Amino acid sequence: MIRKFTNWCVVAVTVMLTAASFDVYSQGETLFKNKCSTCHQIFKDGTGPKLYNVREKWASEGAKEGSIYAWVNNWQKAAATDPYAEQVSKIKPTSMNQFPDLTKEDIDAIFNYVDAQQDPATKVAEGPGGSTDVTVEQESGNTWLWIVAGLIFVTIILTLGGVRRQLSQAVAEKEGGNVNDYPSYGAEVRQWMWKNKIYVGITGLVVTLALLIMGIQALGNINVMEAYQPSQPIDFPHSVHAGINGIDCKYCHNSADKSRTAGIPTVNVCMNCHKQISGNTPEQEAKIKKIYEAAGWDGSEYTGKTKPLVWNKVHVLPDHVYFSHQQHVVVGGVDCKQCHGDMTKQQQTARIVPVEELNKIEGNIPLTKPTLTMGWCIECHSEKGITDGPLSDKKSGYYDEIHRRLMNNDRTLYDKYLKDGKVTVRELGGWECAKCHY
Ligand code: HEC
Ligand code: HEC
Ligand code: HEC
Ligand code: HEC
Ligand code: HEC
Ligand code: HEC
Predict the structure, then answer these.
(1) What does the pLDDT look like over 142-160, one tens digit per residue?
(2) Is residue 338 lining ligand 5, measured as CB closer than 6 Å?
(3) pLDDT tens digits, residue range 238-294?
(4) Nearest ligand atom owner, CA of 243
(5) Domain-located, residue 196
(6) 348 Cβ partners below 8 Å, 6+ apart?
(7) Which of helix, strand or coil describes residue 214?
(8) Packed helices 197-223 and 185-195: angle between N→C axes, nearest 10 degrees
(9) Closest CA to 337 of 322, 320, 359
(10) What is the mean pLDDT of residues 223-230?
(11) What is the total count of domains within the chain?
């Protein structure tokens, strides 16, 4: 009777723990923390205004229906079509990033998460001694309470099991039986599991299902990075420069073949041409005027009053990842468009091109994992041939030493590599964790 009760308790706690961990990974919270919390707090104005009940605020103050979603996707577009949004856009001199990749569901998930938080001000009113600077982290503390409680519960059950085992052992010893006859802890656990198939089965099923769903959710969150296109200080079109005017990528990204980074041009590089080119239409003139302001150019001479041009970085890898442009562009012979898409056709500012679009570009090898994720790097390393024949075919000479070593010492391995007609990046170690991670 007591045993049955304990078993059901274990099932219940596991289910509760699983439910709690779902809460930790809720879509809205993850999105808010990853994308919005750098500028927005929930109950306090910061770089951006507080976000609590902001949907209600927009609705009650006369915003057009749905314009708040358009705002998050692209605030400039929203401000152009809705007078209320235009008013909001003047709140702060700093402007908000664009999030064109967020769906209406994603944005609602963010706001639902935000609105579900409890206002610390009312908390303080309820009890004396409350502190006013309650942060977002502490607000989700409930979940952790559940997890800790669960862990304590499991520990108690395991300890009780151990005590019972020791008692039984002591009894067996007293009665003159052989102590070693008593099953080991592992065997006892197996026995227990067999006896309680149903409970173990249900628990296992719930946990497996939950892990599966969480895994899929996690993948979904990585995906959100694709198509990322932050706003930029100048609406710079690659199509006009690298496309129509055929300027070489390396004229502006001049370290792509020399170092890890490709580099972003300084305003002096722009001025090489724009001292002469001030634009043909009022629209172009307005954009190019921003270059002059940055360079401190008054149309005939430099005034010395410069204003830094701060481009927002589009492609960003975490600090623990090592990536080198030189290795890919020069040694690997990979074209810019395999990873960045056809920039000569990009009419707006740069963005992370989703892998489905990259796959449509002629000459690219098709990949399946979202651009810039680890899966994407790994997949290319396993598909991409360094050469279509022996390594000595590569004229750079970079692989000559490896070629010689393989020919002399590992001939069978080399033959195995060449079976599909190419040596892939993976076969030369492109899947080793340490190659990409510090
Ligand atoms: C780089 C900073 C920054 C980031 C990141 C950011 N915002 Fe903003 N946000 C602002 C600023 C600044 C404003 C005020 C409007 C203005 O002056 O442009 C604003 C305004 C808003 C407003 C209108 C607020 C009001 O009181 O009417 C909403 C809604 C909003 N942001 C949602 C979001 C969401 C959702 C995210 C994350 C997906 C986000 N923001 C990310 C800076 C940011
Ligand atoms: C006239 C100068 C110029 C030329 C030529 C040029 N770019 Fe750019 N590129 C820029 C500027 C300025 C930015 C920053 C603005 C932006 O992100 O749109 C940029 C941004 C980028 C980015 C995004 C950088 C980031 O932050 O992640 C990529 C990728 C890129 N360029 C690739 C290319 C490729 C490929 C070519 C050749 C087909 C090329 N560029 C030619 C000036 C240039
Ligand atoms: C194998 C894929 C790949 C190729 C090929 C490639 N890039 Fe990149 N590029 C990246 C990645 C990944 C980043 C982000 C790097 C980081 O955050 O450390 C990046 C970042 C950039 C940036 C932002 C500034 C910087 O240096 O981080 C520019 C500009 C850029 N690339 C231009 C180019 C140009 C121009 C070429 C061709 C000459 C090129 N890339 C070829 C993957 C690639
Ligand atoms: C090698 C010469 C060259 C360099 C360097 C150059 N540009 Fe340009 N840019 C041009 C030409 C040519 C045009 C097209 C003007 C026209 O259509 O009459 C242009 C047009 C533009 C326009 C207007 C585009 C439009 O039609 O909306 C902007 C904005 C611009 N450039 C920004 C920049 C910035 C920012 C830099 C520096 C990162 C830069 N350019 C560097 C040659 C250059
Ligand atoms: C389009 C295919 C492609 C993609 C995508 C790609 N790589 Fe590579 N990578 C290569 C090629 C080709 C080489 C050159 C092989 C060599 O260095 O021997 C290479 C080499 C490397 C090397 C050097 C390996 C060695 O053996 O010394 C590192 C590190 C690396 N890549 C990291 C990355 C990272 C990190 C990413 C993702 C952000 C990435 N790569 C994405 C094709 C790719
Ligand atoms: C070809 C390059 C490459 C290789 C090889 C590689 N990784 Fe990664 N890894 C990456 C990149 C790029 C990211 C960042 C992906 C992102 O931001 O979504 C990453 C992210 C990760 C993360 C997630 C960390 C985080 O930011 O959330 C872990 C964990 C990880 N790698 C472990 C490994 C292990 C273990 C191996 C060896 C089996 C390995 N990696 C091999 C490129 C690589």
Answers:
(1) 556 677 777 888 877 777 7
(2) yes
(3) 999 999 999 999 999 999 999 999 999 999 999 999 999 999 999 999 999 999 999
(4) 2
(5) yes
(6) 229, 235, 237
(7) helix
(8) 100
(9) 359
(10) 70
(11) 2
Query: What integer pLDDT is reported at residue 120 of this predicted model?
Result: 64
58 and 118 in a common domain: yes
Query: Using CA positions, which residue lies closest to atom 31 of ligand 3?
Result: 262
Q: Are 47 and 133 found together in one domain?
A: yes
Write down the pLDDT at residue 30.
82
How buried is residue 427: exposed, middle or buried, by Cβ count under 10 Å (0-12/13-18/19+)?
buried
Tell me which ligand sits closest to the C-alpha of residue 365.
5
Q: Tell which one of 266, 268, 277, 307 to mutate to probe ligand 4, the residue whose CB is within 8 A of the most ligand atoms.
A: 277
Alpha carbon 239 to chain centroid distance? Answer: 28
Handedness of CA 12, 15, 17, 20 (dihedral sign): negative
Per the CB < 8 A criterion, the answer to whether 24 and 145 are in contact is no
Q: How far is the CA of 43 from the centre of ligand 1 (A)?
A: 14
Beta carbons of 75 and 98 less than 8 angstroms apart: yes
Q: What is the dihedral of CA 24, 26, 28, 33, to 10 degrees?
A: 30
Tell me: do 130 and 163 sit in the same domain. Answer: no
381 lines ligand 5 (CB under 6 A): yes
Q: Which residue has the tokens 């007078």?
A: 83
Alpha helices in 183-324 (DSSP H): 185-195, 197-223, 238, 249-252, 267-274, 282-295
Ligand having the closest approach to the CA of 352: 2
Question: Which of 384, 381, 389 has the alpha carbon at shortest distance from 364?
Answer: 384
The answer to whether residues 6 and 57 belong to one domain is: no
Q: In this predicted model, what pLDDT tens digit does every residue of 281-320 receive, in sequence order?
A: 999 999 999 999 999 999 889 998 998 888 988 998 888 8
Asked whether 425 and 384 are in contact (CB, 8 A), the reply is: yes
What pLDDT is stored for residue 169 in this prediction?
74
Please indicate, yes or no, whether residues 129 and 208 belong to a single structural domain of this protein. Answer: no
Ligand 4 pocket mutation pick from 238, 267, 269, 273 by most atoms within 8 angstroms of CB: 273
C-alpha 290 to ligand 4 mean position (Å): 12
Q: Is residue 132 domain-shared with residue 156, that is, in the same domain? A: no
C-alpha angle with apex 402: 396 to 403, nearest 5 degrees?
80
Q: Which residues, judged by CB distance below 6 Å to any ligand atom, belong to the binding site of ligand 3?
A: 249, 253, 256, 261-264, 315-317, 323, 325, 328-329, 334, 336, 338-340, 372
- C-alpha span between 143 and 205 (Å, rounded): 22
Higher pLDDT, 415 or 130: 415
